[in-house]
Prior knowledge:
- The complex is a heterodimer.
- Chain A is of the alpha+beta class.
- Chain A has 10 helices and 4 strands.
- In chain A, α3 crosses α9 and α4 packs antiparallel against α6 (136-146).
- By secondary structure, chain B is of the alpha/beta class.
- In chain B, α7 links the parallel β7 (155-159) and β8 (186-190).
- The mean pLDDT of chain B is 90.
- At the A-B interface, α2, α8 and α9 of A face α2 and α4 of B.
Amino acid sequence: MNLLSILAPDRQADRVVPPSGHTAWLTQFTAAAMAFLAVFALALSLAAGRLADRWSDALERTATVRLSAPEDQIDLQTAAVLEVLTTTPGITSARALSDDEQRALLEPWFGPDLPVDALPLPRLIELTEDGAGYDAEGLRQRLAAEAPGAVLDDHTRWRRPLAVAADRLRLLGLLSIGLIAAATAAMITLAANAALAANAQVIRVLRLVGARDAYIARAFVRRFTLRALSGAAIGTALGMIGVALLPSTEAAGSFLTGLGFTGAGWILPLTLPPLAALVAFLATRASAFRKLRELT
Amino acid sequence: MIAFENVAYSYGGGELLSGISLRLAPGSFHFLTGPSGAGKSTFLKLCYAELRPTAGHITLFDRDVRSLSRDDVALNRRRIGVVHQDCQFLDHLPLAANVALPLTVAGRGSEASDLTDLLGWVGLGSLADALPPSLSGGERQRAALARAIIMGPDVILADEPTGNLDWEMSLRLLTLLVELNRMGKTVLVATHDLNLIRQAKAQIPARVLRIAKRRIQLAGADL
């Protein structure tokens, strides 16, 4: 008995076992609800993955040199730092932020009227690296020699927790899908057990007239597999419609930006109905053979 | 076909059958008689491997039942037609589908004409589409007999097949069993109806086994 053969029409076997009533509908409803949730878990997982990649990429490609020096030496040391940076392999560009740019950075904390000129703020120099990257330790040593007040911040301490958080979120999404699959299997197992117990007399008669366990199990497994497949298809369709109808948050540019599926990602939820059918097939098959040994 | 060798069967701490040794030869006709609760049904269940002996050996078509897998048991039951006391039908299926059930579960199709002939032979040709709950006791017993023989079994076991039937219907069922025996089938009928046994012995050389005090003996000439 395999999954594909189960899906083939079998009118005789379908007739032999009476309709399972509410257990079959329960299976279909459970599969639909779980598939609906799985679509959102998948969307969350994919979005978290994209977010992790975006944060990593953005932070990985840039770094900042913070330069603190006496006022009369600041321009000199800035020039020295820029010279070091532009001659460092792996760095494509480097520039000192203007006062306006520094004011804009500090504005969220100190307001728009911050007197940048009057404050002893360090000079910020932004650098962009190429794909291969640069030798951060070597650069720190060179900066210490050329501009003692310069501190290289390569964003590692920022990037790492953000990337870890996004990765965890992605894992949580995948874990949710696994839990949904396990819960689906548990529910279908319970429903299949109930159906088998309710049909104990039918099973007994079938055994008495020479039915093998595989024949009897097939009738139940086929029913529950098809219910799970159709239920999951409905739930997946509703979930995908729900994701498609999520309001765009491009303008806000927040965490929720891009929650959902993009491009080929829309194909992924389509794997949920076959996955649900496989879960139902395996759960009902194991349950049926175990229950048959108990009943007869 | 079926052989018992010093077989015992215990259930719930009590021994229901013990020291049973006998052989159902091909083409034989046996009656099994004894008081209610003596273990006739248990003996039949041992014959078609619904129960396993707690001691001794039962050989079914040359194989010890203890060595049979569940699939083997199912395949052996296709060679043994059983008429159960309570008929054991699937009430949601029409009579014809119930009678054809052994063929269905074996994956063998039946010619509609064969099924019609068989139902006609047991006098149920007009009830092919009826559901089992709507049938009388006699009709159900004859349908059960039709189902028992549809696979062309080597052995036919009947557990009190006339228990709920009037005398006329009992004779009709007996006639069918005798016909089957004359076709070469091995028949074992559990019954406490001594008149039925006498009627059968007038037609065929049937042997009568009596079950009493957990043992099976060949009955005397009074039967």
